[in-house]
TrEMBL record:
Gene Ontology process terms (BP): 'de novo' L-methionine biosynthetic process; diaminopimelate biosynthetic process; isoleucine biosynthetic process; lysine biosynthetic process via diaminopimelate; threonine biosynthetic process
Keyword presence, Oxidoreductase: yes
EC number: 1.2.1.11
Active site: C129, H242
Organism: Cognatilysobacter bugurensis
Record: residues binding substrate: Q156, R235
One Gene Ontology molecular-function label: NAD binding
Protein name: Aspartate-semialdehyde dehydrogenase
Binding site for phosphate: R99
Phylogenetic lineage: Bacteria, Pseudomonadati, Pseudomonadota, Gammaproteobacteria, Lysobacterales
Principal EC category: oxidoreductase
Family: Belongs to the aspartate-semialdehyde dehydrogenase family.
Function: Catalyzes the NADPH-dependent formation of L-aspartate-semialdehyde (L-ASA) by the reductive dephosphorylation of L-aspartyl-4-phosphate.
Record-listed NADP(+) binding positions: T11, G12, A13, V14, R39, S40, S159, G160, N316
Length: 336
């Protein structure tokens, strides 16, 4: 039956994509509320070919909402997600506000969907985009061979930072190509034609929060706190699509052939792996605007007897955030 849905953060990049995916997947919506800050209230967003007025989150009464999808930052989730849950909504939160709470499930639809039911606080957390795409590929291998250690270097697109970052990359690129100055505003240094080894905030151990998310979330979602995870997160001058160089060590030996078999059967994933030029997935040629997670460059690690390396690419706004949130909402609906 049809339900009442609220999108919190409807005017952001993820919010807009949430609306598109809800329409594409014909989510059974009886009533839709699109919510944002007072600054955006009164503006309009497009859903299923019609305009919908944005309501002010601060004055909105959440009673009657069945499912609330949050993508407005951690502070908004911290303040409003519990209120929506208390009013009876199931909250699916894209921020990192609740991901690491023991009584909040952290769910990738293709990896641990059964966890959706385990929501004593009425809140389900959506993992970080970089974790999401990585685990869609690694979970089948972990289940068979047991990942003991994981090294990952990510090449994250600027859409992960938001609209202003998308604008900055475009503006800076144009200005530099016209031999004009390009002062950085969103990032600490120039992003156009550059690679910035920094995502999120620095922590006391020298890693950034974006890197530590890969550590904490991998262990929680795979249910194994013993997995060693080492991450380096970089921002690259790409608009949409995060790329990841992943190197795993496994408890049991697994060959590339067996890994390929597992990945071919894995839901939500496509293999692009020919050992020729262009025989691999990239943000521009494959991931941007698409739903699947793409895997290529599969090879046994020549430096380790039970090592495997691969290249994982996905659209960080679609599968990395919006699509998984809608898939979790579909799982909640299926309980009814
Ligand atoms: C980033 N993963 O790419 C973050 C966004 N959630 O900056």
């Amino acid at each position: 039956q049809q339900v009442t849905v609220a999108i919190v953060g409807a005017t952001g990049a993820v919010g807009e994509t949430l609306l598109n995916i809800l329409a594409e997947r014909k989510f059974p919506i009886a009533r839709l509320h699109v919510l944002a800050s007072a600054r955006s209230a009164g503006s309009q967003v497009e859903f299923n070919g019609r305009k919908i007025a944005v309501e002010d989150l601060a004055t909105f009464d959440p009673s009657g909402v069945d499912i609330a999808l949050f993508s407005a930052g951690g502070s908004v989730s911290k303040e409003f997600a519990p209120k929506f849950a208390a009013a009876g909504a199931v909250v699916i939160d894209n921020s990192s506000a609740f991901r690491y709470d023991d009584d909040i499930p952290l769910v990738v639809a293709e990896v641990n969907p059964e966890q959706v039911r385990n929501r004593p606080r009425g809140i389900i957390a959506n993992p970080n985009c970089s974790t999401m795409q990585m685990l869609v590929a690694l979970a089948p291998i972990h289940r068979e061979a047991g990942i003991t250690r994981l090294n990952v270097a990510t090449y994250q697109s600027v859409s992960g930072t938001g609209r202003r970052a998308l604008e900055e990359l475009g503006k800076q690129t144009a200005r530099l190509l016209n031999f004009q100055d390009a002062e950085p505003e969103v990032y600490p240094v120039q992003i156009a034609f550059n690679v910035i080894p920094h995502g999120g905030d620095f922590t006391e151990n020298g890693y950034t929060t974006e890197e530590m998310k890969l550590v904490w979330e991998t262990r929680k979602i795979l249910g194994d706190e013993s997995i060693g995870v080492n991450a380096t997160v970089a921002r690259v001058p790409v608009f949409y699509g995060h790329s990841e160089a992943v190197h795993i060590e496994t408890r049991d030996k697994i060959t590339v052939e067996r890994a390929r078999e597992l990945l071919e059967q894995a839901p939500g994933l496509e293999i692009v792996d020919e050992r020729v030029g262009g025989g691999y997935p990239t943000a521009v040629t494959h991931a941007s605007g698409q739903d699947p997670v793409y895997v290529g460059r599969l090879r046994e690690d020549i430096s380790h007897p039970r090592g495997l390396s691969m290249w994982i690419v996905a659209d960080n706004i679609r599968k990395g955030a919006a699509l998984n949130a809608v898939q979790l909402a579909e799982l909640v609906l299926a309980e009814r």
